[in-house]
Design a protein that fits this description.
Helices cover about 60% and strands about 5% of the residues. The chain is mainly alpha-helical and about 375 residues long. The protein starts with 14 loop residues before the first helix and ends with a helix. The protein folds into three domains: about 100 residues, DNA polymerase, domain 1, CATH 1.10.150; about 180 residues, hpI Integrase, Chain A (Orthogonal Bundle), CATH 1.10.443.10; about 50 residues. The chain is elongated. The protein has a three-stranded antiparallel beta sheet, covered by helices on one side. The longest helix has about 45 residues.
């Protein structure tokens, strides 16, 4: 087993290089595994499954039939040491487990029923998103206005308005867009983000601003003779979606230019989800509709998109705790002086009031005396 986990950079994709190093028989095995995965998974996830099968075989450095429980344990240890995100760890474990289960009829006995493979039931991102990371509507509009390329501008608007994952936007098909309504377009998204690989359709949030850009993009592709099932095809492979590496580089450059800090595409979906969470909290949208459009359970929806609540809570605590329960000595001294001044002013006002009343009474008495004499 290799000393550390073999990492595949999505921008350079060295999977092919390691694939070529496999024996003829092992190549047939991973090719068949990819083909079988396509039965229940998308093309992209089938490719990822193949990549992870290649990774495991290269790291084990032995023939498939010789792989045993210790090889699996060694791999899982290297995976843990790599410190990937919970989501990535779950995916890699799932791919490797499926690969081994497919290769060995005696998998239960050979690998101890995969007892060593533990999935995180409540995964969180490696780089947690803070309330400050969430993009505001104004920031998104600034990004859209700054981007001049029609393809990228359309990508940005569609991902944000549709609250899509970056992969869902990259792999979006023209057939998934309902264009019957000239003012509002609807997307039907099939998600297979689960270990069973079962497809589940959801209706994404309606698109309005994206309508114009989608129409312009479609017109431009027709004029340029670009024929692809994908809305955002790869430049030199029209039968493939644009790569994640290209998308990541573009958005990183754009956000650094406009916002002064490089950010990831996922924040577009996260920011839209955050706005839905606010609407739900303010009773302007049902949680059922919000969760359906985001493709989440209510539990995950509350867990994932609650930054606004946390931000408001921080402000409340700041006011209640810092401004009331705790006052610095300097501020306390300053406030005490102000209180003393106010007390003095109040006393002076009272004195003036007493003197005024005394004079008034004196005038009244004099007036009464004069009236009596008359």
């Amino acid at each position: 087993m290799m000393n550390k986990l073999l990492v595949f950079d999505t921008n350079t994709n060295p999977t092919k290089k390691y694939y070529e190093k496999l024996s003829h028989e092992d190549k047939k095995i991973v090719d068949r595994f990819e083909a079988n995965c396509k039965i229940t998974a998308s093309i992209s996830r089938a490719k990822k499954a193949k990549s992870n099968a290649i990774r495991f075989l290269v790291m084990a450095n032995k023939k498939v039939e010789s792989i045993n429980l210790q090889d699996l344990k060694d791999f899982l240890l290297k995976l843990k040491e790599a410190k990937f995100s919970d989501y990535t760890n779950n995916d890699i474990k799932n791919y490797v487990q499926r690969f081994l289960k497919e290769q060995f009829r005696d998998w239960s006995e050979r690998f101890n029923n995969f007892e060593d493979i533990k999935y995180d039931s409540e995964p969180s991102r490696k780089e947690k998103i803070s309330p400050e990371d969430v993009l505001t509507k104004e920031q998104v509009e600034k990004l859209i206005k700054t981007e001049s390329d029609l393809i990228w501008k359309t990508f940005l608007v569609v991902q944000y308005e549709g609250a899509l994952r970056t992969g869902e936007t990259r792999q979006l098909l023209w057939s998934q867009i309902d264009m019957k309504d000239l003012e509002v377009y609807w997307l039907t998204i099939t998600s297979k983000k689960n270990r069973q690989g079962k497809g589940k359709d959801r209706i994404a949030p309606p698109l309005s601003q994206a309508v114009f850009f989608l129409n312009e993009l479609k017109k431009a592709q027709q004029e340029q003779g670009i024929k692809s099932l994908y809305v955002f095809p790869a430049k030199h492979k029209l039968n493939m979606p644009i790569s994640s590496g290209m998308v990541n580089k573009w958005f990183s450059r754009l956000t650094k230019k406009v916002l002064g800090k490089a950010k990831t595409n996922y924040l577009l979906r996260h920011s839209k989800g955050e706005s839905f969470h606010v609407l739900v909290r303010d009773n302007k949208m049902s949680k059922e509709n919000a969760t359906q459009m985001m493709g989440h359970s209510e539990k995950m929806f509350d867990k994932t998109y609650s930054h606004t609540d946390k931000k408001l809570l921080k402000e409340t605590l700041k006011k209640q705790v810092l401004d009331i329960d705790y006052i610095s000595p300097e501020k306390k001294s300053e406030l005490e002086k102000k209180v003393e001044e106010l007390i003095k002013e109040n006393i002076e006002i009272k004195k003036e009031g007493i003197e005024t009343r005394r004079l008034l009474n004196q005038v009244l008495r004099q007036g009464t005396e004069v009236i009596g004499k008359i």
